[in-house]
Write a structure and sequence with these properties.
With about 290 residues, this protein is α+β, with helices and mostly antiparallel strands. It contains eleven helices and six strands. It is about 50% helix and about 15% strand. A six-stranded mixed sheet has the order 2-1-6-5-4-3. β4 and β5 form a beta hairpin. The protein is elongated.
């Protein structure tokens, strides 16, 4: 619009750019770095010929994210223990709708973990198409590929995600209720109640990056997971505070120690029982969660 500055135009699209970059990289801090680099390029370019700023900025951001993802993938081969995405507070930034359901699903831990196994191009196509609904032709321009090639990448990525993403119940009220009961049972020392909430084949995935205490391998079975959680819950946390908030599109538990983020716990639910427990303790991934 007439009178809009370069800053005005960029800020109008910042949330979309950050959303694309986060889904591409699984790290909010990395996403912010990519968006900042996109901003620098935007201000340095001659924008006179840019007719569609949104498409242009998404194209720049996506390409920067692909480059960073390729670098990150080599680093993650030496990552200590399981890798989980950096938790982000989502809240109701989009009204309840089909669009909100798609956006929140695409930032769920379950989906982001599966996206790690895609190639950078497959991941870019999946994010742009499935999360943001970009037309194939626009994605082809963004990635400098033919539309036919993009459709093939999209189909392959969608099948891969469908095959590897567990089908969990997504009722947020049920997940919040179970999260609250889970916290009460663990902190209250009720081992039987805790075990009763866990599915027999429950899994626990912990991410510490070797910088905090957490399991270095995925744990399985209600007995093993229950005993581990019960033991951890009995260990004192200095100045402990517990908050339940929406993280990655679903209720999650944030544990604070002396006012600083210490642990994030999120559960996946199927048939009324906890099917998977995600625990993030890597301090580098918790810094963005302000107390």
């Amino acid at each position: 619009m007439p009178g809009e500055t370069a800053t005005d135009v960029f800020e109008a699209h910042r949330s979309v750019l950050t959303g694309v970059a986060y889904r591409m990289l699984g790290r909010f801090t990395d996403a912010e770095d990519v968006v900042q680099e996109a901003w620098l390029r935007w201000t340095a370019e001659d924008r006179a010929d840019v007719r569609e700023p949104r498409g242009y900025l998404v194209r720049v951001t996506t390409r920067l994210a692909i480059d960073r993802l390729r670098q990150a993938q080599s680093r993650r081969e030496s990552y200590v223990g399981p890798w989980l995405p950096e938790p982000i507070a989502t809240g109701h930034t989009v009204p309840d709708s089909a669009e909100r359901a798609e956006l929140t699903e695409s930032v769920s831990f379950a989906v982001l973990v599966v996206l790690e196994s895609l190639s950078p191009l497959e991941r870019a196509v999946f994010v742009l198409r499935e999360a943001f609904g970009f037309p194939y032709g626009e994605i082809a321009t963004t990635l400098d590929r033919s539309e036919a090639a993009v459709r093939q990448l999209a189909g392959r990525a969608r099948r891969h995600v469908d095959e590897r993403t567990p089908r969990y119940d997504v009722d947020p009220a049920e997940r919040r209720d179970l999260t609250e009961r889970f916290l009460a049972a663990a902190s209250g020392g009720d081992f039987d109640a805790l075990i009763d909430m866990l599915a027999p084949d429950v899994r626990l995935v912990g991410d510490s990056g070797g910088k905090a205490k957490a399991p270095l391998r995925v744990m399985e079975s209600a007995d093993k997971v229950g005993r581990f959680l019960f033991a951890v819950a009995q260990q004192p946390v200095p100045g402990a505070e517990f908050r339940i908030l929406e993280l990655n599109g679903a209720p999650g538990l944030l544990v604070l120690s002396d006012g600083k983020p210490d642990t994030v716990v999120q559960i996946e639910v199927r048939h009324g029982r906890i099917q998977c427990v995600y625990i993030v303790r890597n301090p580098d991934k918790l810094a963005a969660l302000k107390a």
